[in-house]
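so my prof wants the structure for this chain in the tokens format not the other one, which i didnt know existed until like an hour ago. anyway here's the sequence
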Amino acid sequence: MPKVPTPARGQASDSVAQNSEFFSRDTYNHHAERLDSHARIRQALSAELAGTGRLLDVGNGGVFEYDPAVAEELVAVDLFLDGSMSDDYPDNVAIRRGDALDLREEEASFDVVLEAFLYHHLTGSRCADSVANTRRAIAEAARMLRPGGRLVIAESCIPRLLYPIERALFRPLRRLAATPLLGGHPATLQLPIGVLLSLVAEQLSVERWVPIPLGRWVTQFGRPFPAALTPVRAHLIVARKAG
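here's what i got, hopefully its the right format
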């Protein structure tokens, strides 16, 4: 298990540790390479990112949900990554340790920032922390963008009507995540697409958002799960920083 860094204020330290341990196993990457829904996500993101000059992938987790060749220069950051890993990737890819809530890359230096399936992992000890942390992650991404640059988001979202139920279940889920029953997967909290769009619009101009069609299988708590049996759906959001 990699060394667990100190998270930014607002993130729960136990969730950070569970994320670190879970993603170090390469379980998610194993499913991302094989499940049909991830193939569709990869296709959508690769098309959206094609031709990027300088790309910052925040919350990469060691998993590329797109073809890294889409960018001339690609910097992938996460709390659990290490710069020594760069040698294992193509020449245009640099791997760095970084916190989505406190980015240390050069300000206003990226053409595109990607935040893919990040926000539902930014949990704290309370449900409200997820909204605050998502808002902060978006603000940090905006700070990294050059004038006119784009924030590209892929995120799993829950229907608004089910959001109160998910919030009510969050504390029990956090306790469950500390047991072997979830296989080491941390507790997560998905936002409704309307809430996420409003958070993005606070910082940037939303150009468009579209659902990403799923296949037959998705990952749920790190395991393959029939897409027809989950209400969670994937969305692609593209927003632009003022020029």
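also thought this was worth mentioning. Residues 127-144 form the longest helix (18 residues).
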